[in-house]
């Protein structure tokens, strides 16, 4: 993969839109040209404990997205294009400051696919002064095998989603009916490269490996149950899994169930299925039954127009020894 030439006839994500993003104002499916744009750089305390630790994860939220789910909680950057232009040099300096002053546990690039050449250059510059800080890719799961292969020397930790087992649901909500197969292939490539997340005890910070996330969608329990079953059959009980209940409607959805939060019953069915399958390492985001239905009042919906877009709720780490079932 030729680095910055990749923006011409773009094939950086599985959509392979083929658009020459180097032309003045010409944008790919992701909604972006070849000019690096970023909405937020700073410590983030809302990831799983072995990634956040006590000092946070140094996150970079890129403007635009190659998946663009209809329900995206980060819609301000994936849909509304909040952000400004940066250079790789400027970004590298900001990350060095995070590593040296904030002493974040890792550098966390959030959905970087469409700016992968800039990310690689940034990592090269960053590692000149901070070679020991792990590089984490926080991904949608909808990645090309070529991208994963090219990135192997620049990445230490993969944090992919596995959103859909149902191809028709993937088509309706993210316009990618090939998501289930593509994501499983991508996750398999990540695991082959880095193995499972290397955290071995409570409080230990991870430095390498793969942790897979799944977000429960209201009205789609079968999608979750089948997704978790698929992950178990593909990777076995040792795959570290993060089960997320944070879905919150932020924009009107065509599917009625997506205009509400998940119910307690929906969460319990999915959670109990995880326990029955026998995953050995799980990070569980239990529903907040007291949370408001107002998206402006939930800590899981960031405001990228603010200098401090996040509140920082946590996850619970649990062993597979029972629970709600």
Short summary of the structure?
The protein is an alpha/beta fold and 325 residues long. The chain has helices at 49-52, 75-78, 88-102, 116-127, 145-150, 167-174, 179-194, 221-235, 264-277; strands at 37-44, 57-62, 84-85, 107-110, 135-139, 157-160, 209-210, 212-215, 241-244, 282-284, 316-318.
Q: Can you tell me about this structure?
A:
By secondary structure, the chain is an alpha/beta fold. The protein contains nine helices and eleven strands. The chain has helices at 49-52, 75-78, 88-102, 116-127, 145-150, 167-174, 179-194, 221-235, 264-277, and strands spanning 37-44, 57-62, 84-85, 107-110, 135-139, 157-160, 209-210, 212-215, 241-244, 282-284, 316-318. The strands form two sheets. Strands 3-1-2-4-5-6-7 form a seven-stranded mixed sheet, with helices on one face. Helix 3 (88-102) crosses helix 4 and helix 8 (221-235) packs parallel to helix 9. The termini are far apart.
Q: For the record, give the distance between the C-alpha atoms at the N and C termini, rounded to a whole number.
A: 48 Å
Strand order of the largest sheet: 3-1-2-4-5-6-7
Total beta-strand segments: 11
Q: In percent, how helical is the residue content?
A: 25-40%
Main sheet properties: 7 strands, mixed
Contiguous runs where pLDDT drops below 50 for at least 5 residues:
313-324
How is the topology of this model organized?
Layout: E1 37-44, H1 49-52, E2 57-62, H2 75-78, E3 84-85, H3 88-102, E4 107-110, H4 116-127, E5 135-139, H5 145-150, E6 157-160, H6 167-174, H7 179-194, E7 209-210, E8 212-215, H8 221-235, E9 241-244, H9 264-277, E10 282-284, E11 316-318
Parallel strand pairs: 2-4, 4-5, 5-6, 6-7, 8-9, 9-10
Antiparallel strand pairs: 1-2, 1-3, 10-11
